[in-house]
What we know:
The chain is of the alpha/beta class. β4 and β5 (90-96) form a beta hairpin. It is 48% helix and 15% strand. It is built from nine helices and six strands. The longest helix has 14 residues, at 115-128. The mean pLDDT is 92. It starts with a helix and ends in a 7-residue tail after the last helix.
Amino acid sequence: MHKESALSHGAGSIRGFGTSMLRNACNGEDFVRRAKQELGIAIRIIPGEQEAELILAGVRQAVAFGPQPTLVMDIGGGSTEFILATNKALMWKRSFELGVTRLRERIPISDPITVEEEARIAAHLDDQLEGLYAVVERQEPHVLVGSAGSFDSLARIISAERGEALASDTVTLNFSALEFDALKDRLLRMDRAQR
């Protein structure tokens, strides 16, 4: 279990944080109670803005920020956080209830996704992300830093396509918007088995 591994590697304590799915689950408090009883792990359910701050703190451990605004994006199951920051300041943060699981519950999709379904998702995202778009238009970040498993998967695929082995201890991989768009377009046309 991860708890024992962390303790064996010198962790002084284990802290658990509940995010969007627990914030909104009808049995979230029951889950927290059972985790404490059965695993000895205290979980604190935190608001989305605090989740965004913790994401930024983690990203800062791996990525050097400069004086120009950088946009951080963390895709989760229940929510997606966007944080705008420089090397000196957190400029803006917001948690949107737009995680992968939430989107799939709201807008069922085929396998592979159809053009119409893709358009429905895009329209929903455009509607929900108006505040983000306004901030991005004003601040003009030139770099997007992706955090979470979806971006790990993209990095592995892009690295393989470049013919480079991605070392297991690699925590960052730079790729262009063109590389991302080309990969996205291909993935959208594949079914689950092909992906």
